Amino acid sequence: MNRTQKLEGVKSLSSLKYEVIQMEMAKLKEREATLRDTLRQLAASKRQEATLRQPDDSALIAGAGIRWQQWVDQRRASVNMELAQTLAQKESCIARMKLAFSRNEAAKGLVELARQKDKVKKQRRSFE
Asked: Where are the domains of the chain?
């Protein structure tokens, strides 16, 4: 196995690593979008419940409205915590993706350089 073939292997591995991290980022972005959508839905349902409430509503009198709003607030806090964790994971993933991209580009450059050197060697041999 010559130097160019070894570098091709390194390039393949670095490319694969970069693709894996890109897939991880896609999952994190999808999770972030889902959590943000959940927060929007919770806020909308809380607003809607407040506008539909009647002063003589038996559920309101029994305190169900207050308990429901407390549940919504607890759920929003939980979703916000999950969103914060997802955003932290996303930042970490961005850093790893930058590094993987740089390594992948460097490997591509090294392979190209090795190919050019091989080509020059081949041409020199043909003139001898």
From this structure: 3-127
pLDDT in tens, 91-115: 999 999 999 999 999 999 999 999 9
Q: Domain 3-127 belongs to what architecture?
A: Orthogonal Bundle (1.10)
Q: Which residues contact 38 (CB under 8 A, 6 or more apart)?
A: 79
Residue 46: predicted pLDDT: 81
What is the DSSP annotation of 27-84?
HHHHHHHHHHHHHHHHHHHHHHHHHH--TT-HHHHHTHHHHHHHHHHHHHHHHHHHHH
pLDDT of residue 20: 97
